[in-house]
Design brief:
- The protein is mostly helical.
- The chain contains five helices and two strands.
- It has a two-stranded antiparallel sheet with strand order 1-2.
- It is globular and about 45 Å long.
Length: 147
Amino acid sequence: MKVFFNQLFDYNFYCNKKLIEACTALESVPPKSMALFSDVLNMHHIYNEYIDKGQPTYQLGQLHDLSTWGDVHYENQRNSFEITSATDDFDKRIDYEDAEGKLLIHTVQDLLFHIINESAYYRSLIEVDFKANGLELCRTDYMTYKK
């Protein structure tokens, strides 16, 4: 399971880095794309904290300046790799309160997979926004990555 998640987080790291580089090269990033990628960063951070039983510093809807994306992204990835390295039981159940105060229970595996899946979903929404704004697409799907 560690190898599986490390591969997925490598993919996630590559795609987010590619998107950060593409946005940095733009004169202006569309506001919707800024909000969506900020939530990629926020969600990743929040779910890492749920697993680590920490208190999230970021919240969904919090905007990050483009100049900080790389650092936040790197820190999220580093934390996820620490989690996968330290985890022996990916079926371990984690109880946490979501942003609405609702008590939830999921496995470490579920929470880690959610980070990857939700990141891919948000990146696809950014691709749609790029296309709507006449910008070049980044192609961050998994099979493009594997080529």
